[in-house]
Design brief:
Layout (H helix, E strand, L loop, with lengths): L1 H8 L12 H29 L25 H15 L5 H25 L9 H21 L8 E3 L7 E3 L3 H20 L7 H18 L2 H7 L10 H19 L8 H18 L3 H7 L1 H20 L9 H7 L4 H21 L5
Antiparallel strand pairs: 1-2
Length: 360
């Protein structure tokens, strides 16, 4: 939106040409989303409190969580508004990748909103049933996968890029659709499972989004891609602005979500942010690197799978409680320690992921 305006104004003054630089627009996107979050956040929290849209706490959960009952939730709506507004302001709206990542994010947010609304406003503790939620996630994920497959214009867009190896790229064919579906839906649910402590999910999301922005910039720049032996995908660089918006909106939300949290993001935020990371990893062809950088999300998901499988098969639990962060809480770790250590782990994994840019 603003990019088109600055292009028009550039006819009258050359100074407006600076807005054509992708890095500047990414920074402006992050700052715009950050300011929206910080400005709108307090009034949104007051409104959620006024309408008593508060968090419910499981009876079998850690006792330290009982004090969180009633804390305003559905704060993910603030994140989505900030991301969408910033992306529309500073992105090239003729770019198909921008629309794909934005629409998928908002649609997953809509699924989360319905779930939160049923639980918190209508008083239905079940919310959307698991079957209903999975159906809509699957429908959106498959539609995105088919669209990306059918509109692919560069060979690398449908190849599986193996990190740490310069010339290993596996042509997927229609398996691209299957992989894309699992990455988007799986990452969405993984972030949702991780969102159980104050700030636990949002900062890793910010760090991974920032790293994916670097991958998008390299993949969309022919010179950098050639120098690093990276697959070139024309137009994917515009996703940098979207990633910048995630970073800004996430940091703004963390201002209110840090321990002790004033607001929680709810499913509307967690499902949407997870899908956003998944679809960005797909369009930049970094699905395997996402699994490395998002290792905390993977650990949380695997802990739930192992816990359920173990209990059904043997009647015994592997962890004191799943997801994994609750296990450490029940071992006596303070909540803040669990959060910060998971942040540190994510930071290390993100650096490992970024190392794949050069170690090829």
């Amino acid at each position: 939106m603003l990019l088109q305006l600055t292009e028009y104004l550039g006819q009258f003054h050359s100074g407006f040409g600076v807005f054509q630089y992708l890095t500047l627009r990414a920074i402006l996107g992050a700052l715009t989303a950050l300011m929206i979050s910080l400005i709108v956040g307090p009034s949104m929290i007051r409104r959620l409190s006024k309408f008593q849209i508060g968090q419910t706490v499981r009876d079998d959960g850690p006792k330290s969580h009982f004090a969180k009952a009633g804390t305003p939730t559905m704060g993910g709506s603030l994140i989505l508004v900030a991301i969408a507004t910033s992306t529309l302001f500073w992105s090239d709206l003729s770019n198909r990748f921008v629309w794909v990542v934005l629409i998928v994010t908002l649609l997953f947010g809509a699924v989360g909103w319905v779930d939160d609304y049923k639980k918190l406003v209508k008083g239905d503790p079940a919310g959307l049933s698991a079957r209903q939620k999975y159906f809509w996630q699957s429908l959106i994920g498959l539609a995105c996968a088919v669209f990306l497959y059918e509109t692919a214009t560069f060979p690398a867009e449908t190849q599986l890029i193996v990190p740490f190896f310069k010339d290993v790229a596996i042509e997927l064919g229609w398996m691209f659709v299957v992989l894309t579906y699992f990455v988007i839906v799986g990452t969405s649910n993984a972030v949702n499972l991780t969102d159980g402590l104050d700030g636990l999910a949002i900062l890793p999301t910010v760090m991974v989004a920032a790293a994916l922005a670097i991958f998008a910039y390299v993949a969309g720049n022919f010179s950098f891609a050639s120098y690093l032996g990276f697959p070139y995908i024309g137009g994917v660089g515009e996703v940098v602005v979207f990633c910048g918006a995630i970073v800004g909106a996430g940091l703004g939300f963390l201002w209110f979500n840090t321990y002790p949290a004033q607001v929680f993001m709810g499913d509307i935020g967690a499902l949407a942010l997870g899908a956003a990371l998944g679809v960005v990893a797909v369009v930049t062809r970094q699905e395997l690197v996402l699994m490395i950088m998002g290792g905390v999300f993977v650990m949380e998901t695997v802990s739930v799978i192992l816990q359920v499988a173990s209990f059904k098969l043997t009647g015994k639990r592997i962890f004191r409680m799943a997801p994994l962060h609750h296990h450490f809480e029940l071992k006596g770790w303070p909540e803040s320690r669990v959060i910060v250590r998971f942040w540190v782990i994510t930071m290390i994994l993100v650096m490992v992921g970024l190392a794949t840019l050069k170690i090829r």
